[in-house]
Design brief:
The complex is a heterodimer of chains A (292) and B (126). The radius of gyration of chain A is 22 Å and the shape is elongated. The longest helix of chain A is centred in the middle third of the chain and has 16 residues. Chain A has a 6-stranded mixed beta sheet, with helices on both faces. In chain A, strands 2-1-4-5 form a 4-stranded antiparallel beta sheet, covered by helices on one side. The two termini of chain A are 36 Å apart. Chain A has 10 helices and 14 strands. By secondary structure, chain A is α/β, with parallel strands linked by helices. Chain B is 56% helix and 7% strand. Chain B is built from 5 helices and 2 strands. In chain B, helix 1 crosses helix 3 and helix 2 crosses helix 3. Chain B is globular. The chains are: A alpha/beta (292), B mainly alpha (126). At the A-B interface, helix 6, helix 7, helix 8, strand 14 and helix 10 of A face helix 1, helix 2, helix 3 and helix 4 of B.
Chain lengths: 292, 126
C-alpha cells in the first residue's frame, strides 16, 4: 500500500477547559476523497486545521508528507491547498488580481487549468471580491486553493453556497484531482448527498472524537434499520444485538443496528419468531442515527 | 443505461453490480456488449470513478465481464446456469420474501399472489 499523506496519532486539542478534539487517530492515503461530516461545533474545523499544523495539538502528533505538521518545510507546504471556512480574500481586489497574487506564491500554478475553470464555472474576474455573490466568491476561493495542483487539498465547507450545477462541476474537479494517484482530497460538508457522490471514505466527527471512519460503502453496509414483525407481542425491553436504538410497539419493533451482518437477519427472525426486514440507510439517516 | 442513486442505503457499487447482473441474466446485455467506460459513467452520474471501478472489478471476478486491452469492459461469453439451482433460488429468496411481506400487508391472499406471479411470468416469456 502507498504511504499515507497524513498521519494523525492520538491527537487531543484543548482550548481552555474544553476539549475540541479527543484522541483522534486517522490517515489520509493517496487517491482518497474523504468527506468530513459533523454537527455544528463538533470539531471539524479544528480537526482540519490541526491536521495541517496551524496550531499544535495538546497531545499527540500529526505527520504530513513524512514531516512533523508543526515544522513543515516550504516545499511540503507548497504541496497543500487549503480553503478555510471563511475565505481570506481581499475585499478590494477583483478576481483577476486575486488569482494573480495567489499564483505568484506558487511555482506550479496552472494558469491554463484556472482559466478553463473560470470559464466553466462562470467566475467573474473583473468585479471586486466584496461585490461578488457568496457563491461566486466561494468559486473563486476554491480556484485559489487548487490552482497549484496540491497533493493534499483540504476544503472546509467549500460548496455550501454553490448552486447544484456548480456543485456538480466542483465534484467532477475533485475526481480529476484524486485520479492522480499521488493526491488526496479532504473536505467537510453538510451537503450529505455530495459526500455520497464524491467520497470514498467518511469521517464522522462527534463531540471532538472521530466517531466513525472508513469506507462509505462499508458504513452503509454496516448500519441498517430492522423492521421486526412478530406473531406475539414483543417485550418492551427487547434486546437486539448492536442496536443503537430500539422501539417496540406491540408485535412490531424497529431497531437501528451497527456492525450488521446479513446472516444475522435469519438468526434474529428465528429467535423472535418474526419476520425481519432490513432497510438500508442513506448517509443522512445514518448520521442522524449515530447522533441519537 | 443504469439507475444510480447515491442517496440510497445500498452502496453505488452494489446498485451497479445488481443491475448489470440482472441485465446479463435477462439477456438485455448480450455477450460481447461493451460497457460504458469508468470515466464516462462516473461523469454521467457525477459519482466517484472508484465506485464504478469497484463494481466492474467485482463483476469481472464473477466472470460476468471481461477486461479488454485498451478498450472498455465487455460482457463475457455466457456460461449458462453455472450456479446450481439451489444457489440461484437462494439468490431469489430476498426478493420473494419482500413480495410475500408486501402481499400480507396488503391482505392479498396466497392464491392471488401466485396468480399474479404467473401473469408476470407469462408477460416476460418470450
Amino acid at each position: 500500500m502507498a504511504e499515507p499523506l497524513v498521519v494523525a496519532r492520538n491527537v487531543t486539542k484543548v482550548f481552555g477547559a474544553t476539549a475540541a478534539l479527543t484522541d483522534v487517530s486517522a490517515e489520509v492515503f493517496p487517491g482518497d476523497i474523504i468527506g468530513v461530516l459533523g454537527k455544528n461545533g463538533a470539531g471539524k474545523t479544528t480537526l482540519l486545521e490541526t491536521l495541517l499544523g496551524f496550531s499544535p495539538p495538546s497531545r499527540g502528533n500529526v505527520v504530513v508528507f513524512g514531516e512533523d505538521a508543526l515544522q513543515m518545510s516550504a516545499s511540503a507546504k507548497s504541496r497543500i491547498g487549503f480553503l478555510p471556512q471563511l475565505d481570506e480574500m481581499f475585499a478590494m481586489l477583483n478576481g483577476k488580481q486575486h488569482l494573480a497574487i495567489v499564483a505568484a506564491f506558487h511555482s506550479g500554478w496552472d494558469r491554463a487549468l484556472v482559466d478553463r475553470l473560470v470559464a466553466e464555472w462562470g467566475v467573474p474576474l473583473t468585479r471586486r471580491v466584496d461585490s461578488l455573490s457568496v457563491g461566486e466568491r466561494q468559486k473563486l476561493a476554491v480556484l485559489c486553493a487548487l490552482g497549484h495542483h496540491p497533493d493534499l487539498l483540504v476544503l472546509d465547507e467549500p460548496v455550501a453556497s454553490l448552486d447544484p450545477i456548480a456543485r456538480r462541476q466542483f465534484l467532477q474537479q475533485l475526481f480529476t484531482i484524486a485520479e492522480n494517484d499521488k493526491r488526496a482530497v479532504l473536505f467537510s460538508s453538510h451537503i450529505v448527498s455530495d459526500l455520497e457522490r464524491a467520497a470514498n471514505k467518511v469521517w464522522i466527527v462527534k463531540d471532538g472524537r472521530l466517531h466513525w471512519q472508513g469506507e462509505l460503502d462499508a458504513l452503509k453496509e454496516s448500519v441498517v434499520r430492522l423492521h421486526i414483525h412478530a406473531r406475539a407481542p414483543l417485550p418492551a425491553d427487547l434486546a437486539v444485538p448492536n442496536a443503537l436504538a430500539t422501539r417496540v410497539t406491540g408485535n412490531s419493533a424497529t431497531a437501528t443496528v451497527v456492525q450488521w451482518e446479513p446472516a444475522a437477519a435469519d438468526t434474529l427472525a428465528k429467535q423472535l419468531d418474526s419476520t425481519v426486514n432490513v432497510e438500508a440507510l442513506g448517509l443522512e439517516d445514518i448520521f442522524l442515527e449515530l447522533h441519537r | 443505461m443504469f439507475v444510480v442513486n447515491p442517496q440510497s442505503g445500498t452502496p453505488i457499487y452494489r446498485q451497479l453490480v445488481e443491475q448489470i447482473t440482472r441485465l446479463i441474466a435477462g439477456g438485455q446485455l448480450a455477450a460481447g456488449t461493451e460497457l460504458p467506460s469508468v470515466r464516462d459513467l462516473a461523469e454521467l452520474h457525477t459519482v466517484n470513478p472508484m465506485t464504478i471501478s469497484k463494481a466492474y472489478a467485482l463483476l469481472e471476478a464473477e466472470g460476468l465481464l471481461e477486461r479488454q486491452r485498451g478498450k472498455p469492459m465487455r460482457v463475457a461469453a455466457r456460461r449458462r446456469n453455472q450456479a446450481p439451482l439451489t444457489q440461484r433460488l437462494q439468490q431469489l429468496e430476498p426478493a420473494v420474501r419482500d413480495v410475500v411481506l408486501a402481499a400480507r400487508q396488503l391482505e392479498v391472499g396466497k392464491k392471488e399472489l401466485v396468480a399474479l406471479l404467473g401473469d408476470e411470468w407469462e408477460k416476460n416469456d418470450g
